[in-house]
Amino acid sequence: MSIKLGVLLSGSGTNLQAIIDRIAEGTLDASIELVVSSRPSAYGLKRAEAAGLQTMTLSKEIYADPLLADEIIATELKMHGVEYVIMAGYMRMVHEPLLAAYPNRVVNLHPALLPSFIGAHAIQDAYDYGVKVTGVTVHFADDRYDCGPIIAQQALVVEEGWTVDELEEHIHAIEHVLYPDTIQLLAEGRVHVRENGTVEVR
């Protein structure tokens, strides 16, 4: 069964591109109905336009009231028939209007193995800490930053001598496979949130 996605981004949009490519090659049963950017200059908007996707950008003035911004986004996503909201490098927290409109349907990607290294600088933080293993987490977003039920994780062994840039490259390579794979699990209806807030993948 194909699911309808809304993608939220703030930057270069490499994860958006990975999703677009997987849909195009027929290995992801989804369609992207709307791409929302928090920044007008985000390169991800160019990727979306190149793929013929509908886009929307919100101004800084609107984001001055984050609840209003999320209300506008939720309304637009609903109008486009979106079923799952995919955060792909979206550097803003989501709030009640969006979470209430899409309970356990707002999905986030985090470049570390949660609950370790929450926040916007997870790759640098893990590198500075000297961890030997880090990775990528896909989880449902909730009203706390980088919390919410974990759907999937993939570990990465950090090799001696890597620079932080090399670590980032390897993290992104995992993201570009794990995120579309996880969205496919959603499309197949295999992801279920238990009452205790953990996720079962059937």
How would you characterize this protein structure?
It contains 7 helices and 9 strands. With 202 residues, the protein is an alpha/beta fold. It has a 7-stranded mixed beta sheet, sandwiched between helices. A two-stranded antiparallel sheet has the order 8-9. Helix 1 crosses helix 7 (164-187). The longest helix is centred in the C-terminal third of the chain and has 24 residues, at 164-187. The protein is globular, with a radius of gyration of 16 Å.
Q: End-to-end span in angstroms?
A: 16 Å
CATH 2nd-level architecture? 3-Layer(aba) Sandwich
**What is the CATH class?**
Alpha Beta
User: Structural class from helices and strands?
Assistant: alpha/beta
Q: What's the rounded overall pLDDT mean?
A: 96
Annotation, overall tally of beta strands: 9
Number of helices: 7
Strand content: 15-25%
Low-confidence stretches: none
Largest sheet strand order: 3-2-1-4-5-6-7
N-to-C SSE string, H for helix and E for strand: EHEHEHHEHEHEEHEE
Named CATH topology: Rossmann fold
Largest pleated sheet? 7 strands, mixed
**Secondary structure: helix percent:** 25-40%
Secondary-structure topology with pairs:
Blueprint: E1 3-9, H1 14-24, E2 30-37, H2 43-50, E3 55-57, H3 60-63, H4 66-79, E4 84-87, H5 96-101, E5 106-110, H6 122-129, E6 133-140, E7 150-157, H7 164-187, E8 191-193, E9 199-201
Parallel strand pairs: 1-2, 1-4, 2-3, 4-5
Antiparallel strand pairs: 5-6, 6-7, 8-9
Helix pairs in contact: 1-7
Which key terms come to mind for this protein?
single chain; 202 residues; alpha/beta; Rossmann fold; seven-stranded mixed sheet; two-stranded antiparallel ribbon; 7 helices; 37% helix
